[in-house]
Amino acid sequence: MNAKGILVFSLAANFGLLGVVIFLLAKPPATHPAGAAQNNSSAAPVQKNKSKSAEKIFTVSTTNALKIDWHMVESEDYRQYIANLRSIGCPEETIRDIITADVNKLFESRRKQMQATSTNKFEFWKAGSMFGAMMDENKIKQQQEMAKEKRELLKTLLGVEPEEKADMALLVNPFQDMLDFLPDSKQSKIIELMQTYQAKAMKTFKDGAPDATDMKQMQKVQKEMEAEMAKILTPDEMENYQLRLSQTSMMMRMQLASFDPNEQEFRDIFKLRKKFDDENGVMGMGLSDDNDKMKTAQKELNDQIKGILGPDRYPDYERAQDYAYQAIAKVAQREGLPKEAGVKVYDMKKAAEEEAKKVRADKALSDEQRKSALQAIRTETERSMGEVLGQKGFDSYQKQPTAYWLRSISPNPKSAETK
Question: Is the pTM of this model over 0.85?
Answer without folding.
Answer: no
